């Protein structure tokens, strides 16, 4: 049995050590390769594309090391599982964004006089209202976290008319947790940002492809919205010439929302637990298709 993984020779949160790969090979009597192999039966990682599936047509089980997916078309007769525990880290990071922007920490001056313009936008938690867009594992966990702090939050899915909702209700934060697929491409665009309050903040812990970055840039540049907290962008890794970097009302991190101590161990354990079930022809955990 051949397993292809792309969790190799990358950053700390996305690199399974060689000794761990060797341990899995020995314990489960499998062959793990980091080179595309047409005989591979299992995919394990987070960078899967349609090209991989074309080169490896015998894949029967796809295990995603994170929660979301979207860079490949779902192949028929293929089991797809994920690592839902990573949702907790992403939700907590989104909450970090809310607190960061609410208190002006993202762009903190060194004098009280310079900080004065922020004061009119700082609210107690019980007066803050968030709209969570995308109500999967991440959205649900984020809603629980916000509610525990007394922060009001509404939830919508990709199928709801977000523009009508934004026009009817005033939200301090719009938090994008959407996955990427053909229906969510550029879901957030100029017509969406135009429906937000000019005091609103936009947070993206979903997928970069769901946002029209030119429209986001224009909305931030002209102060149609107050600020943005972004963990993802359309083209990653983030390019130095991305014009969002020229704005002082944007905070951007390099897609690290799910990174935390022991998160790699969790990814490995979730995969190997399912590998045992797969080899024994038992139902897998965390099936998303």
Q: What is the secondary structure topology, with strand pairs?
A:
Elements: E1 2-5, H1 18-28, E2 31-33, E3 42-45, H2 50-55, E4 61-64, E5 79-81, H3 86-102, H4 112-115, E6 129-133, H5 137-148, E7 152-156, H6 162-168, E8 173-176, H7 190-193, E9 201-204, H8 213-221, E10 227-230, E11 250-252, H9 263-279
Parallel strand pairs: 1-2, 1-3, 3-4, 4-5, 6-7, 6-8, 8-9, 9-10, 10-11
How is this structure best described in words?
- With about 290 residues, this protein is α/β, with parallel strands linked by helices.
- Helices cover about 30% and strands about 15% of the residues.
- The protein has helices at about 20-30, 50-55, 85-100, 110-115, 135-150, 160-170, 190-195, 215-220, 265-280, and strands at about 1-5, 30-35, 40-45, 60-65, 80, 130-135, 150-155, 175, 200-205, 225-230, 250.
- The strands form 2 sheets. A 6-stranded parallel beta sheet has the order 7-6-8-9-10-11, with helices on one face. It has a 5-stranded parallel beta sheet with strand order 2-1-3-4-5, with helices on one face.
- The radius of gyration is 21 Å and the shape is elongated.
- The model has no long low-confidence stretch (mean pLDDT about 95).
């Amino acid at each position: 049995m051949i397993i292809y993984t792309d969790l190799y020779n990358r950053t700390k949160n996305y690199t399974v050590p060689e000794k761990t790969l060797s341990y899995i090979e020995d314990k489960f009597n499998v062959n793990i390769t980091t080179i595309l192999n047409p005989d591979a039966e299992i995919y394990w990682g987070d960078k899967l594309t349609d090209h991989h599936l074309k080169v490896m047509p015998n894949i029967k089980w796809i295990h995603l090391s994170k929660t979301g997916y979207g860079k490949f078309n779902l192949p028929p007769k293929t089991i797809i599982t994920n690592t839902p525990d990573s949702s907790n880290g992403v939700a907590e990071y989104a909450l970090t964004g809310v607190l960061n922007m609410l208190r002006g920490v993202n762009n903190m001056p060194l004098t009280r006089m310079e900080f004065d313009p922020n004061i009119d936008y700082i609210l107690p938690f019980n007066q803050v209202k968030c709209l969570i867009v995308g109500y999967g594992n991440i959205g649900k966990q984020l809603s629980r976290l916000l509610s525990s702090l007394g922060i009001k939050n509404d939830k919508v899915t990709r199928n709801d008319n977000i523009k009508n909702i934004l026009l009817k209700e005033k939200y301090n934060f719009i938090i994008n947790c959407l996955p990427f697929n053909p229906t969510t491409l550029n879901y957030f665009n100029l017509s969406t940002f135009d429906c937000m309050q000019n005091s609103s903040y936009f947070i993206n812990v979903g997928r970069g492809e769901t946002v029209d970055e030119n429209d986001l840039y224009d909305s931030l540049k002209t102060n149609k919205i107050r600020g943005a907290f972004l963990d993802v962008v359309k083209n990653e890794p983030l390019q130095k010439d991305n014009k969002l970097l020229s704005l002082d009302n944007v905070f951007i991190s390099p897609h690290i929302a799910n990174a935390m101590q022991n998160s790699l161990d969790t990814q490995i354990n979730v995969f190997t637990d399912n590998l045992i079930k797969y080899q024994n022809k038992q139902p897998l955990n965390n099936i998303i298709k």
